[in-house]
Amino acid sequence: MPWLTCTKLTLFTIAGVAIQMVGLSIFVFGFFPVKPTLPGHSGSESFRAPQCDLVRNESESDLHPHQLRSLYKELSGMPPAFDRLILMVIDGLPAELVLGKDGKPPSKALMEAMPYTQSLLANGMAIGFHAKAAPPTVTMPRLKAMVSGAIGGFLDVAMNFNTQAMLDDNLLGQFFKIGWKMVMLGDETWLKLFPGLFLRHDGVSSFFVKDTVHVDQNVSRHLGYELSRDDWDFLILHYLGLDHVGHIGGRNSALMAPKLREMDEVVKMIHMNSILNQKNDEGQTLLVVVSDHGMTESGNHGGSSYEETDSLALFIGVKNNISDDFLSTHNIVHQVDIAPTLALLFGVPIPKNNVGVLIAEIFGYLSEDQQMKALELNSWQLLRLLQAQIPGLSCRNYPCDGSRDDQESRIAKCSGSMEAMFCCLYTNAALLQKSWMSKEISRSNSREDYTSTVVGYYEFLRTASEWLSRRATDKPVRLLTVGIAAMLLSCLILLSLLFHTCKEVYLREQSLFDLESIKQTWYLDETFVLGVVLILIVSMASSSMVEEEQYIWHFVASTLNLLLLRKTIKCPTGAGAQDLRSSSKGKNKISFCRLSSISVVLISGRILRGWHQGGVNWTNLPDISKWLEQAGTDNVKSIQLVSCLLVMSLTLCVLFLFGFNMKFVLVIGFSFLMSGLLVLQHFVKHQDGMFASSSYSTTTLVQIIYAIMGISTFGTVVALPWFVRFSTSEMGLSHDLYMSTSVPNEVQNNTLLVKLRESLYLVGWEYISFWCLLQLLLQQTINSMTILLLLVQILASMLYFSYSGLHQKQWVEIAALYFLGMAGHFALGNSNSLATIDVAGAFMGISNHSTVLSGILMFIITYASPMLFILSMVMYVSVKDTSYLPSLVNADSTQLLKLMLGFPCLVPLGLNSILLTAYTIVLLIMRNHLFVWSVFSPKYIYVCTTTICVYIGVSVVATTVTYTYWVLGLSKKMQSKRGHHHLR
Amino acid sequence: MKQKKNKEMAAKPSSKAISKAEALAVHLISGFGLSVAFWVAHNVHSITLTSHPSHTLCLIWVFECPAVILLYSRYRKDHEQCSYFKAVGRGLLGLPAGALINALGAIVLGAPAGIQYLPKTINWSLVMSLFTIVPAASVFGSSWTDWQRIFAFTKPIEPVDYMICLPAHGAVIGAWFGAFPMPLDWERPWQEWPICVSYGAIVGYLVGIVASLGFILVRQHVKGD
Predict the structure, then answer these.
(1) CA B77, CA B137: separation in Å to the nearest integer?
(2) What ipTM was reported for this prediction?
(3) I want to staple A120 with a disulfide (CB 3.0 to 4.6 A). Which of A126, A528, A793, B91 is the partner?
């Protein structure tokens, strides 16, 4: 009696999968924290206290920009100190190079490299800060943090697939609303983030990292012109050269000092032109020099070390009455603090999701009232954000109506839960402010009150800001470890199950056939499959291998097929029991069949590889799809029609050539033909491809196709096994022998097995063909041929495996199918970047926008190939030579089910769990890597989705086979009973 | 010297055992052919494999071809039915056939199939053919069981089997591993097809030669005992 019964196996597998799911979700939520963000944009309500804005001014959106500007001015009570803003971003400049470290000035050479800036700092005409950036220290998220004050999680990037435009509330949007004209010169990231916002722009690409000269000249060449114009209010300059210098030679590169000098020249030019030369009627200009992130000694960035996060914020043109000593020690702020500071300086609402705190030193020029007001506005905004994140937070005890009695008594020491703490801090500050305001008349002696109010506000702001930003970036290590441990555990469970199944099957084979050929030798293909797993794990740790993953999958899939070809040459006669029966002519035929089918798999695999170049670095190289698209839409269209026709005829051929249960085959064939013709009609009707698919008739047609496919597939799966007839002759035979010996059991089971295989063959082929048809409908036109090739690959593989018998370990064959599926995934044009997801097809046949439905369609489109190959397992189960199975009836009948289903379910689950676990660990190790957000995290999303795909596919396969087996057993029992009665 | 040896061999009935010295000589000469090709490429044409892959590979097979075919033809299996020249002819025939097989294998594994890569692919596959198919063609001719034994089962028995089998497998495995750097974004010129694959194949071939010598020495040592 084997240790592993079917029930046990099932339970263990389900347990393993469940543990994996739990571990995965723990890890994902730990690694990609989802924080609720506030939608929409701040308006005039941000000038009112959060508790009191029950009455909202709805007419605001209709206001003219200038009216809005004056409304803000009126509400805030602070006249904007400046009218124009120049934001100069120096990519990758560490603040250390300008401001020094720990109160010490930077080295002499660096001081000399930036003479003008240093003199501004020394004369108090500029205030510089170390602005601590949050990881990932990469340009785009840092720019977002600077203009919105929010620290974004990764998932918000993933959520808006193709558009990189910044949708959250931000400074540029606020400025745009009050009618500012903006000009952008420099890194084109700004153009991607804010399309259509700029009056004039000249984007430069950061693609050519070796270029340190032109990339900045292209920005500076417009500077003289722009400074002479007065039609803009906001000028953005983004210099990339310094970052490129760092990437080439690190911080101490010989190019660094000249580059700093160049930047200094730009600062000098702007300062001379627009700040010193200001006429009184033009208003004041503020120059803010910032860097998006720092760099390590070797010039890299992306991680969270001090060198990388040490970015610069330099305000030039603010009146400064603070001593230098104070500044040199108190000059550390956060990068997110820039956003609220600028918003308050220019009199616009603070962006909604800002977590920053205004930089007090900048506001020295304001009166005490106004400073207090600024603090209050910032606190209100943060309180609103806190209320969004902690739903219970209301701080109701704060009086709205302004009744002020016994405030002094309420000021309390703050402690307790986070919630209570925030409330208490805020209330304290607000009460202090009120008490200070009430003593307005005797202002002169309320200095102490003022200071304590400011301190109170800062305490609240700092606590809230820290808590909020920690929520966005912190990675709870314990949680992540638990997640990984769970995944490792499930991986071990699945692998040991696989190992046990392997061992059992091997023992059974050995006991059944004393064949020389299945003695336990470790074949090359088996070693290779294990080697592939190792190769995949190693390659995951390299960012460029992740980017170009399609090469690896194709390479290993083809190599495995070549090894199978070699094996076929080794023992060309097929295998197992067939050896004994077939004549030499038959053997030749079989070996020819096997050779040609494996060659077909190889050739179509190569064509599939050439279909889409894929990847990231060599996407522009020529491939078949580009070539076809150049040849014109007509050709693409005709290829689509041809491949649809071929898929249909191939399907029908296979159905009728090998079909057993004729009546049902006709039904299936008819429903397939019908949906196929409808798909064809859809193609013919909509010559111009995707764009017509929104019309009503198209949607209806597509919905009809969905319905037919769904009903016929589901109907067949449910109904088919009930209609299987066990022929009376067999019945009689089994009945006659029923009582006498143990032989009939075998015969009985044999017929059951035959019928099971027939039904599974039909169901499996139906899964495959309908899935292909669905893909033909959904995929881009150019991919229709790919679907056909995938179908051909599956057919050829099935043909090959059906003859391979016992020479081939089952798990190797299933691994080969899995590899082919993954290679096909990339052949359909997918890659590990989120940009290749086909969003257009996801709205096919959906009449009104639904995120869930289009998400499902997107999943179906993206995972077409892996799903297809997993679904083909049903057919694989039916075609596999199982002549050794019937003799195991002495055990209970579920043993048979276990042997049939064990490998097709466990191998994909096991392979996937290894890859998932390994990649999770890689991601954890790489969390500070430069490309963690651009390469590794998108890949992780794909890995997770592949896991879901495997779960769904395997459960469909297992359910189908189990259901069919169960129904067949039942109906056989019923029929035999009936036959029994009949005979009596 | 050579002729004398030749006569000795001719005297033996069928395929004869190859001595240690002969095996060493064959391998040394084929290795020598490789190095001469590189030397000529470097000093006469002043090119390298990286700068002019097609031309260099062409030089390699031109120099390697006579060495391999002439050497291996002497150890033909069917010594009685087949004259030396016939074996040489078989080798020459095996060159394009093996090149075709190698080229097909490479393309199936993802080698670029564009027309601009054609000369490179042809020259590379000719070199690979000399490493893999040609020696076997000269030695075994059309004996399917021998081919099957060497390439499908990897079961070399005699010394000459080792001399064919191990370098051939070494070259193929080396080429397979040599393809791994190709998709990386290191922006090195040698990542192009077929440069690193050729380097891999040559390294694998040399390792195979060393291994085959080792096996032959160990075997004869064991036999001697």
Answers:
(1) 10
(2) 0.91
(3) A126
